[in-house]
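Budget justification aside, the reviewers requested a transparent look at the raw inputs and outputs of the sequence design task funded under Objective 1. We therefore reproduce one unedited record. The lines immediately below are the C-alpha cells for a 247-residue chain.
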C-alpha cells in the first residue's frame, strides 16, 4: 500500500523539521515545502513560497505526480518582525500576513479538494499563543496568528462532513537554535545568566518554567492526526507551560 503523504511547510529547520521526522517514523512520506533547503538530509524537499499562489500550485502538482495526494497538511512555516506600531513598515506587515495567514489559506485550499475526494484529511496549523494573546511590537505576527485560528474554524466546519479535521497548536516559547540565540543576546545585553534570562524574560508568564521542546510539539501533531483525535476539530490547543491558561 502506498504511504500516506504529509506535507509540512517550513520543515527545513526548527519545529517543522522535528514534525517531518516524527511523521516519517510513523510511516508517512513527509514532504518539506520551504524557501530554503533543509538543514539535514532525509526529507524530500520542494521549493515553495507559501505566500505565492503559483508557487503553492506548482509544488502541489509536483508532489501529487511524484508521491500522490496529500493526506496530512501541517501549516508550520513562519517568520517574525518586531517594531513599534507607528514605525511598522507596510512591506513587513504584508510579508508576515502573506506567509503566516495567506500561506495557510493557500496551502489548505490547495489540498482540500483531494482530501474531500478521499473522505479523509488532517490539517494542523502551528499558530502560537500569540494567536490568543498579544505582546507589544508584534502587530503583524499577532494579527496573522489570530487569523489562523479563525480560518481553521471555517475550514473545520466545511471539512467535517468530508472526514477532514482542522486544528491549531499554540506554543509559547519553543527550544530552537533561533530561540537560544535570542537568549544569548539577552544574556549579553542585560548581563544575566542563561537561567536568569529564561526566568525573567522568556518564561515570566509561564507557571512551568521550561521551554517547550520541538519534540513535544511534534508529539501533539502526531496525536491530532491519529484516530484517537478524530472527534477533535476547530480547536486551538495551548502548549505554553501555563502561559495564557484558560484562553
Ligand atoms: N520557536 C518558537 O518559540 C515558536 C513559538 C510559537 C510559535 N512558533 C511558530 O512555529 C512555526 C515554526 O517556527 P520555528 O521556530 O521552527 O522557525 P524556523 O525559522 O526554524 O522555521 C521556519 C521555516 O519557515 C520557512 N519559511 C519562511 N518563509 C517561508 C515561505 N514564504 N514559504 C515557505 N517556507 C517559509 C523558513 O525558511 C524556515 O525554514 C512558525 O509558524 C512560528 O511562528 C514558534
Amino acid at each position: 500500500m502506498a504511504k500516506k503523504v504529509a506535507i509540512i511547510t517550513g520543515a527545513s529547520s526548527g519545529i517543522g523539521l522535528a514534525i517531518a521526522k516524527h511523521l516519517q517514523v510513523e510511516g508517512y512520506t513527509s514532504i518539506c515545502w520551504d524557501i530554503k533547503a533543509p538543514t539535514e538530509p532525509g526529507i524530500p524537499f520542494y521549493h515553495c513560497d507559501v505566500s505565492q499562489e503559483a508557487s503553492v500550485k506548482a509544488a502541489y502538482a509536483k508532489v501529487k505526480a511524484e508521491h500522490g495526494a496529500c493526506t496530512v497538511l501541517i501549516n508550520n512555516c513562519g517568520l517574525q518582525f518586531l517594531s513599534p506600531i507607528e514605525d511598522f513598515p507596510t512591506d513587513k506587515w504584508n510579508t508576515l500576513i502573506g506567509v503566516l495567514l495567506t500561506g495557510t489559506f493557500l496551502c489548505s485550499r490547495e489540498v482540500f479538494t483531494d482530501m474531500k475526494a478521499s473522505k479523509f484529511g488532517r490539517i494542523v496549523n502551528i499558530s502560537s499563543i500569540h494567536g490568543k494573546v498579544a505582546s507589544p511590537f508584534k502587530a503583524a505576527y499577532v494579527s496573522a496568528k489570530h487569523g489562523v485560528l479563525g480560518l481553521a474554524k471555517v475550514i473545520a466546519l466545511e471539512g467535517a462532513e468530508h472526514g477532514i479535521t482542522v486544528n491549531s497548536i499554540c506554543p509559547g516559547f519553543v527550544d530552537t537554535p533561533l530561540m537560544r540565540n535570542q537568549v544569548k543576546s539577552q544574556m549579553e545585553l542585560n548581563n544575566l545568566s542563561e537561567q536568569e534570562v529564561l526566568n525573567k524574560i522568556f518564561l515570566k508568564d509561564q507557571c512551568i518554567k521550561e521551554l517547550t521542546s520541538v519534540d513535544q510539539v511534534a508529539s501533539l501533531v502526531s496525536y491530532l492526526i491519529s484516530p484517537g483525535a478524530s472527534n477533535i476539530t476547530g480547536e486551538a490547543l495551548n502548549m505554553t507551560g501555563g502561559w495564557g491558561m484558560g484562553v
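The chain has one domain: 5-172+212-239. The beta strands are 5-9, 29-34, 45-47, 70-75, 121-126, 164-171, 174-175, 212-213, 236-239. Computational costs for records of this kind are itemized in the attached budget.
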